[in-house]
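Reviewers asked in the last cycle whether our approach scales beyond single polypeptides. To address this, we selected a multi-component target totalling 838 residues and predicted its structure end to end. The input consisted of the following lines:
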Amino acid sequence: MLALARNARAAARRMAAATREQKDAALEFAARELLRLRDPILQANGEDVAQAREHGLSAPLIERLKLDDTVLLRLAAGLRQVAALPDPVGSEIERRTRPNGLVLRRVRVPIGTILLIFESRPNVTVEAGSLCLKSGNACILRGGSEAAASNRSLVQVLRSGLEQAGLPADAIGTPATSARAALEELLKLDTHIDLVIPRGGEGLIRVVAQQSRIPVIKHYKGVCHVYLHADADADAELAKRIVLNSKLQRVGVCNAAETLLVHRAVVDTLLPTVAKDLLAQGCELRCEAKARAALAAAGLTQVTSADERTFYSEYLDKILSVKVVESLEEAVEHIETFGSRHTDTIVTSNAEAGRRFQQLVDSASVFVNASTRLADGFEYGMGAEIGISTDKLHARGPMGLEELTTYKWLGDGSGQVRV
Amino acid sequence: MLALARNARAAARRMAAATREQKDAALEFAARELLRLRDPILQANGEDVAQAREHGLSAPLIERLKLDDTVLLRLAAGLRQVAALPDPVGSEIERRTRPNGLVLRRVRVPIGTILLIFESRPNVTVEAGSLCLKSGNACILRGGSEAAASNRSLVQVLRSGLEQAGLPADAIGTPATSARAALEELLKLDTHIDLVIPRGGEGLIRVVAQQSRIPVIKHYKGVCHVYLHADADADAELAKRIVLNSKLQRVGVCNAAETLLVHRAVVDTLLPTVAKDLLAQGCELRCEAKARAALAAAGLTQVTSADERTFYSEYLDKILSVKVVESLEEAVEHIETFGSRHTDTIVTSNAEAGRRFQQLVDSASVFVNASTRLADGFEYGMGAEIGISTDKLHARGPMGLEELTTYKWLGDGSGQVRV
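The resulting structure, written as structure tokens, was:
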């Protein structure tokens, strides 16, 4: 592990000085290699899938593991899209000329070596690897054991792309083993690795955060809220559209809504309308008492009851927690207590209420009259996303290429000294 | 400790919504309290000093511990200076309008609750506390046991300022005990505390970094380099001025130079000139063999020999390590191996060499023809400094008010959903 990290560190130094042309060429070469090596890649993937079946992995997990021609074509297109994105490295964040004539520039530079830990989906190897490469970082990709053969073949594609472009292959590394002990060893190498990004289930991320001596950027889960304010019935169609899209457009993702908060003033009018559509689309509603009573009064009885765990739940499924609140402040309080600081949205026609919600809710993304599903690197115009951070330092919300950089201060002087 | 952190967390929510006027008023009230409570503060400090003498603390440590009227006046002036600085909270970092009409704004917000750990100097209580307050954070100030009474009285001043301005006193907290066990407990409270900033000796900082479950921003030490390039003799006066200022303007600070690297081409011309002045000012020179030989040839024999620890050393004293290198690349390599990623400077009349040095050296601040002593929050125009980071994430180099903030994404929509 130490040799792997050392090689990555040495490669990181060369990557930091690589030109945009070299990095883009490496991505283009990798795209070609990916298609040229179609057969061995799919064969390696076939081995993983066969073994996963033997080990009795669930059907959805096996589905996520599978590569085919469509996926490979999409991955190759993705590599070219990353090549087309602007290079964040070297861009000037700010410039100040001091009274003594010293010109200070704050410029973007790569972070260095990034350890990416992920599960199951071998696509992540190509997607995350390409973003680290483009941002001038070296990375160590540590995938799950169930995708070991697939990941190895995809890492080889990226390394070959780097070599063909005259860049160090070691800028993309992978441990020879996916054993837990090897990961634990990597997490201690804080003089060689600059950042750890774990992606996967909450359990994995908690283990990584607990054991790492290296800074970790992560999100444990996404318990996103839609709050219908007292005046949300002014445009019932808009309210309905946002609730339904936030919950149901895609359910297995971290920016899907898990909880609906409804101001008491619109419980009898707006809530039944929204609930009817949710139920019609097969969404279960887990309601606390007041919400349940309001729905029952409107003739909607096919709902379930909330218990003490309900509002902490990230369902990733067609289930929505529902609660009535007395005020915007109570909604904020609820989000503070039960939320995950990911993304929350208010539906209101009152600009002042929107502003207040945005100020008080301490989440990475806070929306007014927009679906929580829009909290995403592509939707934010980043062109790509390596993950979402609910941490507070360095990066919050979707992380694109810029978030994979840090900065340094360059000072150009003509003999300035401290007086 | 849990109650302390919980109260700070609750206060942080109110501080995040505080107006600039309230925060500045709190600082002004605190400045007045500081002068009004002169007698009890100096009395508390007197107890600390008496106890320090009893425990046999060294004279310089006792000197750092002492408060007097001059220090109190300076601290009060500092509080007013922080009040006069712009408020970073709420400022818009960027704004983008997406094709679907969603307006995204990235705005600065406070980080939340910051745990500041420091030793000895009670001034830090006021300086760091005022910066956390102005940036809308709550903070827990954990000073050393030797300054316990002084720190308590100064924390009281800040709390009283907050209360008089209608802000929560708990935005400035301090543990009732400076016992190590209490600190260890605080470092585990990652759901209540957002950031730890340790300031002090390398030993303390290493313990904090190792035990903390909360993100830490820090610098262990400052081994800063001045590199005299092959053409540095083109302006020998400039070279001399930068070396002497970097090393000797003040020696006990992290941005003072500890190592002089000299390109072989100027070893016989420039090095003796520079060395003569350094020696004349009482600076010891610890030279590797080639530098020593060159100086001996110039008749300068009163130097010492470098050993294997020399180039890792942060002397904080009138001592300078000296080494001859064959090239700019070797200088960079040396800095990579022995440096602390704090601040390094090149002296050259060649703009291309300067640019290359700035690109290759991976430090928070990289200068051309300027003294390392300029790496400082005030010199950078930040108005104040809470510390210097040699970490790579979130903040690098001097940290002012902006570096005590993070951001959130605010999205203003009109019914936008994910399609």
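Chain B has a mean pLDDT of 96. We regard this as preliminary and will revisit it once experimental data from Aim 1 are available.
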